[in-house]
Amino acid sequence: MPYTPALIIGAGQCGLAMSRSLTERRIDHVILERGNVANSWHTERWDSLRLLTPNWQTRLPDWHYTGTDPDGYMTAGDVAGYLGEYADKIDAPIHTNTSVRSVRRMGGGFPGWEVRTDDDLWFARTVVIATGACSTPNIPDVAAGLPDHIDQLSPIHYRNPAQLAPGGVLVVGASASGTQLADELCRAGRDVTLAVSRHVRLPRTYRGMDIQWWLDTAGILDTRFDEVPDIERARRAPSLQIVGTPDRRSVDLDLLRRRGVRLAGRVIDIDGADVRFDDLVADRCGHADDKLFRLLDRFDATARERGIEDELEPSDRPARITVPPTPASIDLDADGISTVIWATGFRPNYPWLQERVFDERGEIRHDGGVVDAEHGLYALGLPFLRRRKSTFIDGAGADAADVADHLSTHLDRVPLVV
Predict the structure, then answer these.
(1) DSSP codes of every residue in 363-398
(2) Which of 283, 288, 292, 327 is surrounded by the fewest CB atoms within 10 Å?
(3) What pTM does this model have?
C-alpha cells in the first residue's frame, strides 16, 4: 500500500494551489485526477464559455497572466492550457486518469485514510477534497414530469445551439449560466423562454472599470467566512449574472427581454408538456435591483475614499428592470418548445466518501475547509469556503494556504503509527 502524508483529489485550480502550498511547507503529497489536468475545463464547458473574471485576475500562487489582453476573458480551452502550464511550472505530482473509488478512515486506531482507486490502495495521513462545487447538475425533481419527446440537458452537457433539436428552448435559471445560454440561443434565432428565480444582477463594467475590479478594490471578494453573520446563507447565494465577452457587454433580463426572450417565473410544477410558473419575477427583479444600487453606492464611496473619482468615468447606472406580465403556465408542445435546459446550479456528489460528514442537503459540513479536524480531512473550492472569492481561480491560492497551515499542524500533532 503506497503511503503519502497528504493526498489531494482533483487537479483543477484548487488542487494545484494546494499542491504549491504543501510544497512550500515541504510536505510530500500526491494528486489523484480522474482525467487530465483541469479535466472539467476540457470536457464540461460549452463552446463559447469564457471566464467571468478578467485575465489580470486569473492569479495563482507564483503564477499570473502575462499575455497581451489583461482585460479580456479566457475561453475554457485557454483556462485548461493555463492550468496545465501551472502544473508543469510547480512540478505537481499528479496521477492522471485515476478515479477514486472510496475514501474511508483507517481502522484499528491508525491515524489516516484509506483511499482506493481504480488500480491501487493508498494510505494517506490527510486527504484534501478539491473536486470543486460544479460536478453534478442540480436538476429539480419536477423535471421527471416532462414527456420523453422533450429533450432535457444541463449546462455541462450543452455545447452550442446547433446541438439542440429544432424548436424553441426553455432555459430554467437566470444566474450566470442561464442568462448566457438564453442570450446565445436568442442570438442564434431560437425562441427562448427564461424561467427566472433568485439572481444577482451586475453590469459588466461600471464607470469604465470591470465589475470584478470594483469587487476586488472594495475588498468584497476578500470578505472572510467568519466575518459574515449567516455564512450558510452566503454560501447559497446565486452566481453573478455576468458574462465574459470580447466586447465586455452586460447581459441582464431587460436586454434579453428587449431582444425577444420571454420571461417567466420559477418553475413550480410540470405535468406532461404543461409547465407552471410562480408570479414573482417582478419582485425578484426589484430585490436584485435594490441590492445592485446599494452595491454601486459602495463602489462610489470606495472611489471617494481612495481619491480616484477624477480618474473614473461618470456614473453610468443601469435602469431598473421593467417586467411585463409573465405567463402562469405554458404548453411546451403548443409553443413549439423542444428542449429544456436546466441552468439550476450544481449539487455536491461524493459517492466515494464513506464518512458521515454531510448535512441534510448532502453538502459537506466544514469550518473554513476543515471537514474533520481530528482525522485530517479537508475541502477546497466550495462556495465561500474561506472567502467570498473561494470559487474563483483568484481565490484558490489564499484558501489553500490557510488549509495547508491547518494540515501541517495536524501532521505535527498526530504521530505516524505503522
Answers:
(1) PBP-BTTEEETTTTEEE-SSTTSSBTTTTSHHHHHH
(2) 283
(3) 0.91
**Cα dist from 260 to 27, 187, 254, whole Å:** 56, 10, 10
pLDDT single digits (tens) 36-83:
888 788 787 899 999 999 999 999 999 999 999 999 999 999 999 999
Q: What is the pLDDT of residues 326-376, one digit of tens each?
A: 999 999 999 999 999 999 988 878 999 988 899 888 889 999 999 999 999
- The Cα 140–Cα 237 span in angstroms is 17
How far is Cα 283 from Cα 272, in angstroms, rounded to an integer?
28
What pLDDT, on the 0 to 100 scale, is given for residue 385? Answer: 96
Cβ-count burial 268-291 (b if 16+ within 10 Å, e if not) = eebeebebbbbebbbebbeebbee
Q: How many CA atoms lie within 13 A of 42 on its CB side?
A: 13
Closest by Cα among 362, 359, 339 to 350: 362
Instruction: Name residue, grid cell 505535527.
Output: 412
End-to-end Cα separation, the chain, in angstroms: 12
Residue 417: predicted pLDDT: 57
Reference 364, options 116, 112, 132, 140; nearest CA is: 132
Give 141-193 pLDDT, tens digit per residue. 999 999 999 999 999 999 999 999 999 999 999 999 999 999 999 999 999 99
With CA atoms as reference, report the closest residue to 13 among 381, 404, 402, 388. Answer: 381
Which amino acid is residue 416, in one-letter code? Answer: L
Per DSSP, the residues of 312-343 read: SPPP-PPPPPP-----SEEETTTTTEEEEEE-
